[in-house]
Design a protein that fits this description.
The protein is α/β, with parallel strands linked by helices. Helices cover about 35% and strands about 15% of the residues. The protein binds pyridoxal-5'-phosphate (PLP). Pyridoxal-5'-phosphate binds next to helix 3.
Length: about 375
C-alpha cells in the first residue's frame, strides 16, 4: 500500500509515537490533580511545554487541549460570541473547511452574526480583499492557514496586521500547517491558533487544541471537573482550566509530544524540503498529460488536487486503490466553497504526502496516474 492521504490523517505514525502510547499506559498518570503517587510522568504539562516551544506560543498555559481542531474552533467561536451582546459582523473565506464554515453558518442562521465570505483568487485570499470586506461592526475573522484542497499557505501576517489595525480578533485554523511549516506565534499577529494532533504533528486522532493569546477575549462555554479548586462550585477561570474539562486523553497527549519531538529531532526543514521536492516531481509528471487538471501547480504544502478528463474522481480513486494499492482521497474534502470555485462542486482526487513517502513511491504513483489518464475515455 502507498498511503497518500496524510492531509486527512497521517500514517504511519513514527515508532516513537507508538512507543509513547504504550509507555504512557504502563504506569498510572501523575499530575492529574490529587493523584498521590510520585511515579510516572506528567504527560499533560510536558506536552503543553513541548508544543509551546514548537509553536512559539507563550506562555505554555495558554495552550488548551481539546478533542481535535473542530472542537477547538467550536470552543473559540462560540466563546467569543458568548461575550458579545449585539449581532456583529464576522469574516471568513471560501478556502475554509467545514470546521470553520459550519459553526459560523449556524450562528449566521440564528441571527447572532452577519457573515461575509471572502473569495480566493488562484489559491489565496489577498490581504486587500480582507481589508475591503471590513465593516464598522466587524469583530472577528476566522480563516484557514493552509488550504486542505489547494495546499496553499495564506499570508496570515499581512491579514492579521490589517485586522489588528481595525481592532478585529483573528483566529487561525492551523490544522494543515502545524507540523508542516514553521509557525512562530510569538511574532505573528494572530489571537488564536488552532492545531490538530493527528495530521502533520504525527499524533493520533482525538487530540488537538488551541493557543489563545488573551484568555479574557473568549468566554468559557463548557464547565465541569478540573481536579483543581474543587470546593468552588464555579469553574476555575485561570488558564488552561478555563477551557479544559474532565479527564485528559493522556496517552494521546504523550503521543502528540512524541510526534513533535520526532519532527524536531529530524528537522522540520529537512522534512519540508523532501516533501516539496516530491510534490514538485509528481506535479511535473502529471503536467505532461493535458487531460490531467491540477488545481494548484505550486502548492506550499504536500497536497495535490486533480481530476482526469473523462473520469469521475471517485473512479480514479477506486482504480488507484484497487489496481495500484495507492490510497488517496476523493470527492469533496469538507471545503465545499473551494470545490464550487475549482471543479463546479464535483470534487477531485487529493494526494497528500508525508515524512515517510519515498521517491520510489512517487515514481509508482506518477506512472499509475499517467496510465489511468491514457486509458480514460474522453
Ligand atoms: C483545514 C482543516 N481544518 C480543520 C480540520 C478538522 O480537523 P480535526 O479532524 O482535527 O477536527 C481539517 C481536517 O480534516 C482541515 O483540513
Amino acid at each position: 500500500m502507498i498511503y497518500l492521504n496524510n492531509a486527512a490523517t497521517s500514517w504511519p505514525k513514527p515508532p516513537e509515537v507508538q512507543a509513547a502510547i504504550t509507555k504512557s499506559l504502563s504506569l498510572p498518570v501523575f499530575g492529574s490533580g490529587r493523584t498521590t503517587g510520585t511515579e510516572g510522568e506528567d504527560y499533560i504539562t510536558q506536552t503543553r511545554e513541548c508544543l509551546s516551544s514548537f509553536l512559539g506560543a507563550e506562555p505554555p498555559e495558554h495552550i488548551v487541549f481539546t478533542h481535535n481542531a473542530t472542537d477547538s474552533l467550536n470552543i473559540l467561536i462560540s466563546g467569543f460570541l458568548a461575550g458579545k451582546k449585539d449581532e456583529c459582523h464576522v469574516l471568513t473565506t471560501a478556502l475554509d473547511h467545514n470546521s470553520v464554515l459550519r459553526p459560523l453558518f449556524e450562528y449566521n442562521e440564528q441571527g447572532r452574526i452577519r457573515l461575509s465570505i471572502i473569495p480566493f483568487k488562484g489559491s489565496s485570499v489577498s490581504p486587500e480583499a480582507v481589508e475591503a470586506s471590513i465593516r464598522h461592526d466587524t469583530r472577528l475573522m476566522v480563516m484557514t492557514h493552509g488550504s486542505n484542497v489547494l495546499g496553499s499557505v495564506q499570508d496570515i501576517r499581512a491579514i492579521g496586521t490589517i485586522l489588528h489595525d481595525h481592532g478585529i480578533c483573528f483566529m487561525v485554523d492551523g490544522a494543515q500547517t502545524a507540523g508542516h511549516i514553521p509557525v512562530n506565534l510569538k511574532n505573528l499577529p494572530v489571537d488564536a491558533y488552532v492545531f490538530t494532533g493527528h495530521k502533520g504533528l504525527l499524533g493520533i486522532p482525538g487530540t488537538g487544541g488551541f493557543f489563545l493569546r488573551d484568555p479574557e477575549s473568549v468566554s468559557p462555554v463548557r464547565f465541569g471537573g478540573t481536579g483543581t479548586d474543587s470546593f468552588s462550585l464555579m469553574h476555575p477561570r485561570g488558564m488552561p482550566e478555563r477551557f479544559e474539562i474532565g479527564t485528559h486523553n493522556y496517552p494521546g497527549l504523550a503521543a502528540l509530544a512524541a510526534g513533535v519531538k520526532f519532527i524536531s529531532d529530524r528537522g522540520l526543514h529537512g522534512i519540508m524540503e523532501k516533501a516539496e521536492r516530491q510534490t514538485t516531481f509528481l506535479i511535473n509528471e502529471m503536467k505532461k498529460d493535458a487531460n490531467i487538471t491540477i488545481y494548484n501547480n505550486q502548492p506550499d504544502l504536500p497536497i495535490i488536487a486533480f481530476n482526469i478528463k473523462g473520469l469521475k474522481n471517485d473512479d480514479v480513486g477506486f482504480i488507484l486503490a484497487r489496481a495500484y494499492g495507492i490510497i488517496g482521497r476523493t470527492g469533496l474534502h469538507c471545503a465545499p466553497l473551494v470545490h464550487k470555485a475549482i471543479d463546479g462542486g464535483e470534487g477531485c482526487v487529493r494526494l497528500s504526502l508525508s515524512w515517510c513517502t519515498t521517491d520510489e513511491e512517487c515514481r509508482i504513483v506518477a506512472d499509475a496516474i499517467q496510465e489511468i489518464a491514457e486509458n480514460a475515455n474522453y
